[in-house]
Design goal:
This protein has 74 residues and is mainly alpha-helical. It has one domain. It is built from three helices and no strands.
């Protein structure tokens, strides 16, 4: 279900964006999707570049098991 969003921008920016066709819903949706993808890439890049050797499959599974056990009720 679509939602309506209102933003306040400086007039010069609105004028320039409108002239470039950036204020229609499709363009704004595309810009937001691209920015979300860029931020996810940066998050994953940060994790990938953490110091230490990468975890092997057994170590990953042990971490998953620990988190699941912690989330189980009582």
């Amino acid at each position: 279900m679509p939602s309506e969003v209102t933003v306040t921008l400086p007039d010069p920016l609105v004028k320039e964006a409108r002239a470039e066709g950036l204020l229609d819903s499709a363009a704004i949706e595309l810009m937001i999707k691209r920015e979300l993808a860029r931020r996810e890439f940066l998050r994953l890049s940060t994790v990938r570049n953490l110091p230490g050797a990468p975890l092997d499959e057994a170590e990953i599974q042990a971490e998953v098991d620990t988190v699941r056990a912690a989330k189980r009720p009582g």
